[in-house]
């Protein structure tokens, strides 16, 4: 296949998929040219999305920040949550150094798993209209930024590209993946947010909500269902027939990053108003302000971001990484710019 303009070509790898902000590559056998059927190369770009649009202005070093922060979180959560993660190795081709990971090839579950510890964003809008979020009844009198009595599981659909994810009830999750898998991903999602907040709170950060994704090994899935691993990757699956005690659920994609979560400064937290955030709320706020001139309800794409919004967004991402990990962020100098492979990389 021809690589999209924003997807780098990587020797010895075939591009399988280029999404909003990530690409997936299959490593190729040097002699036969056949795809490796057990692992993939996951590459995070500097592209950023908001309100279901990929913006035409990248955020420098964003892909590296997210990749390295996810690696750190996978290590922090190892042994704390009783589920494996998908990372195999960070020893990747130089073209994507720092922003690429070799990961396990998985069949992904058809649900976006979201947990909330605080009320804001789409959850707040749903609460104001219904008094609940994803069918979970909440106390009266909550405001923007309120801490919930306990974290709640508020899943959504996994919509095709170009369509909007929609909140769904837990009963709907059960209808999609069966009661056993539904309970497993619910419990894991909430546990990840709870443990993430325990770690982040010590570093002055509140994690308001987070989205995680899960998959299963296609070989184990195929064995359990009596089909080949290739059919397990391609066919419609009777998820209700899958026992998570036999086919372990694997934590995939990214985890507890500024793209998948809302990070707030703990010392500035004050319910009843927007919070000081470490995530892409900076650019969301600009896009919905009169300064952007953009009508979110229209079919027109968002405008280019001004330099000050780009600079502030990058600074918030880096600050989140350094605050959480205690490490100084150092971006590698790739041999190509992964968002513009025909251009030389920017000087650092």
Provide a descriptive summary of the structure in words:
- The chain is an alpha+beta fold and 348 residues long.
- The chain has a domain at 107-264: 2-Layer Sandwich (D-amino Acid Aminotransferase, Chain A, domain 1), CATH 3.30.470.20.
- 28% of the residues lie in helices and 21% in strands.
- It has 7 helices and 16 strands.
- It has helices at 62-77, 121-130, 170-201, 218-225, 229-234, 281-287, 307-325, and strands at 13-18, 22-27, 39-44, 49-50, 53-54, 87-89, 100-104, 107-108, 111-118, 132-133, 136-137, 147-153, 156-157, 205-216, 250-252, 261-265.
- The strands form 4 sheets. Strands 8, 9, 12, 13, 14, 15 and 16 form a 7-stranded antiparallel β-sheet that branches.
- Helix 1 packs parallel to helix 7 (307-325) and helix 6 (281-287) runs antiparallel to helix 7 (307-325).
* Number of helical segments with 4 or more residues: 7
N-C termini distance: 32 Å
Largest sheet: 7 strands, antiparallel
DSSP helix fraction: 25-40%
* Rg from alpha-carbon coordinates: 20 Å
CATH architecture name of the domain at 107-264: 2-Layer Sandwich
Give a topology summary.
Elements: E1 13-18, E2 22-27, E3 39-44, E4 49-50, E5 53-54, H1 62-77, E6 87-89, E7 100-104, E8 107-108, E9 111-118, H2 121-130, E10 132-133, E11 136-137, E12 147-153, E13 156-157, H3 170-201, E14 205-216, H4 218-225, H5 229-234, E15 250-252, E16 261-265, H6 281-287, H7 307-325
Antiparallel strand pairs: 1-2, 2-3, 3-7, 4-5, 6-7, 8-14, 9-12, 9-13, 9-14, 10-11, 14-15, 14-16
Helix pairs in contact: 1-7, 6-7
């Amino acid at each position: 296949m021809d690589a999209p303009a924003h997807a780098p070509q990587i020797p010895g790898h075939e591009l399988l998929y280029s999404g909003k902000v990530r690409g997936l590559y299959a490593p190729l056998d040097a002699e036969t040219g056949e795809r490796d059927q057990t692992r993939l190369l996951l590459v995070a770009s500097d592209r950023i999305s908001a309100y279901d649009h990929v913006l035409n202005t990248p955020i420098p070093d964003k892909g590296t920040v997210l990749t390295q922060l996810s690696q750190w979180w996978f290590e922090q959560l190892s042994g704390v949550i009783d589920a494996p993660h998908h990372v195999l190795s960070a020893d990747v081709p130089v073209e994507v150094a720092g922003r690429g990971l070799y990961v396990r090839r998985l069949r992904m579950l058809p649900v976006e798993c979201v947990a909330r510890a605080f009320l804001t964003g789409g959850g707040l809008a749903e609460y104001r209209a219904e008094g609940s979020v994803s069918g979970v009844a909440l106390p009266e009198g909550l405001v923007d930024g309120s801490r919930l009595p306990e974290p709640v599981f508020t899943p959504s659909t996994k919509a095709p590209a170009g369509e909007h994810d929609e909140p769904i009830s837990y009963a709907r999750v059960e209808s999609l993946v069966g009661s056993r898998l539904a309970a497993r991903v619910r419990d894991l999602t909430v546990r990840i947010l709870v443990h993430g907040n325990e770690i982040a709170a010590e570093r002055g950060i509140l994690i308001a909500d987070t989205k995680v994704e899960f998959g299963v090994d296609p070989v184990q899935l195929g064995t359990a269902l009596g089909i080949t691993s290739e059919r397990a990757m391609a066919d419609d699956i009777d998820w209700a027939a899958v026992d998570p005690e036999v086919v372990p659920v694997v934590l995939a994609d990214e985890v507890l990053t500024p793209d998948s979560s809302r990070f707030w400064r703990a010392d500035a937290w004050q319910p009843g108003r927007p919070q000081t955030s470490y995530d892409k709320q900076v650019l969301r706020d600009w896009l919905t302000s009169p300064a952007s001139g953009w009508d979110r309800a229209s079919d027109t794409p968002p405008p280019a971001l001004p330099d000050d919004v780009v600079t502030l967004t990058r600074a918030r991402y880096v600050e989140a990484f350094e605050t959480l990990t205690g490490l100084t962020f150092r971006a590698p100098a790739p041999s190509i710019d992964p968002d513009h492979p025909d251009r030389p990389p920017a000087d650092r």
